[in-house]
Specification:
Elements (H helix, E strand, L loop, with lengths): L2 H8 L3 H9 L6 H12 L10 E6 L4 H16 L3 E6 L4 H10 L6 E5 L20 E4 L11 E3 L2 H14 L4 E6 L5 H16 L4 E6 L5 H9 L10 E4 L2 H14 L8 E4 L4 H5 L3 E2 L4 H17 L6 E3 L4
Parallel strand pairs: 1-2, 1-3, 3-4, 4-5, 5-11, 6-7, 6-8, 8-9, 9-10
Helix pairs in contact: 1-2, 1-3, 4-11, 6-7, 8-9
Length: about 300
């Protein structure tokens, strides 16, 4: 057991533990007794974490599966998991982060609202919070661990599959490109289009979390122009808006048009909408394992890339 682990389990500082072990005669009896008791207690490299905040921008099917699985995994380790949904509001997220009593015993599983937000209080060198940054990277400081959602490879694989099936006109139904995930998907969509000039590719942007926004955006496309072979929808809410739109147009899936969505839901499977599955349970497992390892060893780093089937 390391000094750092003893300090975490006894809630003493590392320097106090070090001094007590180096010179027991000068240590307070109650401090020395606490340290010796901790050392002599069977210890299986358990995490010193007591609480982990799971901070997400919003809830959808993916995040719901993720958060339920993560909470269950933390409970098995006697760690309290506290979810917080920021409603895609950077100010709300920042205010919540600043209100937290962060320490080495408090962890963050965090999918930030903004890719460019600056949170200098997380840079501190003492009692640094174990952090797993989900899906996106804050560019203003080096994240400890990244689990990157595979937006670029997802778009690429869908597009290539469409081309192989002979589709020539494809629509991307995307979120606002001010969002990191939407921007990544848009960039790759345009990149693949540039490689296949015979394919016509269009895009429509709407609010990721509003099916009404997607429906209204699609309604703006002139009747004569809506002759697509396939559609890529980048969130389940966008897909719900798309379904309403297609129903009014008497366009059927998959007989008339092929649809692929980025978020899984059993309803889509029943309607022959193919889902790009990011395996939220696997990502939750890896995130939980990583943050527990990080809490024991602050120098632990692991970069994981989950690729959809």
């Amino acid at each position: 057991m390391t000094i750092r682990e003893i300090a975490a389990l006894t809630e003493l500082s590392s320097s106090t533990v070090y001094r007590a072990l180096k010179n027991p005669k000068k240590a307070k009896p109650q401090v020395l007794e606490l340290i010796n008791s901790t050392i002599n207690t069977p210890y299986q490299t358990k995490s010193p974490l007591k609480k982990v905040y799971i901070i997400l921008p919003y809830l959808n099917t993916f995040y719901t599966y993720f958060i339920i699985h993560a909470i269950t995994l933390f409970a098995q380790e006697n760690i309290m998991a506290v979810p917080f949904i920021s409603d895609d509001d950077l100010d709300k997220e920042t205010k919540f982060l600043k209100s937290l009593p962060l320490s080495s015993r408090t962890g963050l599983l965090w999918c930030p609202v903004s890719n460019s937000a600056n949170h200098p209080f997380l840079k501190r060198k003492t009692n640094k919070v174990p952090l797993v940054l989900l899906y996106r990277q804050l560019k203003n400081y080096k994240a400890d661990i990244e689990i990157m959602q595979n937006n670029i490879k997802g778009i690429h694989s869908i597009f290539i599959d469409f081309i192989q099936q002979g589709y020539s006109k494809i629509l991307l139904l995307n979120g606002p490109i001010t969002k990191t995930t939407a921007s990544e998907r848009m960039s790759e969509f345009q990149n693949v289009l540039s490689q296949f000039p015979h394919i016509q590719g269009d895009y429509v942007t709407a609010d990721f979390n509003s099916w009404v926004s997607a429906y209204l955006a699609l309604k703006k496309i002139p009747e004569a122009d809506f002759q697509y072979d396939a559609i890529i929808s980048t969130s389940e809410f966008l897909s719900y808006g798309l379904l309403k739109f297609l129903k009014e147009k008497n366009i059927f899936i998959p007989e008339d048009i092929k649809v692929v969505t980025f978020d899984y839901t059993p309803v889509f499977e029943a309607l022959s909408i193919k889902s790009l599955d990011f395996h939220p349970e696997q990502i939750a497992l890896k995130a939980v394992q990583s943050i527990i390892k990080k809490s024991i060893d602050p120098d632990y780093k692991e970069y994981c890339d989950f690729i959809a089937d």
